[in-house]
Design goal:
Layout: H1 2-7, H2 9-25, E1 30-31, H3 37-44, E2 59-60, E3 75-81, E4 84-89
Parallel strand pairs: 1-2, 2-4
Antiparallel strand pairs: 3-4
Length: 94
């Protein structure tokens, strides 16, 4: 969804709807598939899709930050990169 939303107006509309629902319900929204700096910057500014001043996406995951882990890994740590929260699977910390 993230990479498609960069170039597709319809995908941006779907993402804006997801952000609005997340904001309305107080849910924590994590963007999957953040594989390069361009997508990270898009995630940082996604709140502008809904005209809101509150962050739309609070966390990201993708190849930019590490390779996929098998199964559902335990979270070893949370760290901020700029203003985006990253989760590090325990399997990648050794």
């Amino acid at each position: 969804m993230m990479s498609k939303a960069l170039h597709d107006r319809g995908a941006r509309g779907v993402l804006a709807g997801i952000i609005a629902i997340s904001r309305e319900t107080g849910s924590y929204l994590i963007a999957e598939g953040v594989e390069n700096e361009q997508l990270l910057e898009f995630a940082r500014n996604a709140h502008t899709l809904t005209g809101g001043s509150i962050r739309g996406i609070q966390g990201v995951q993708g190849y930019l930050f590490g390779r996929p882990a098998v199964g559902t890994p335990d979270i070893e740590s949370l760290a901020w990169r700029g203003d985006v929260l990253l989760a590090t699977p325990a399997s990648l910390v050794a």
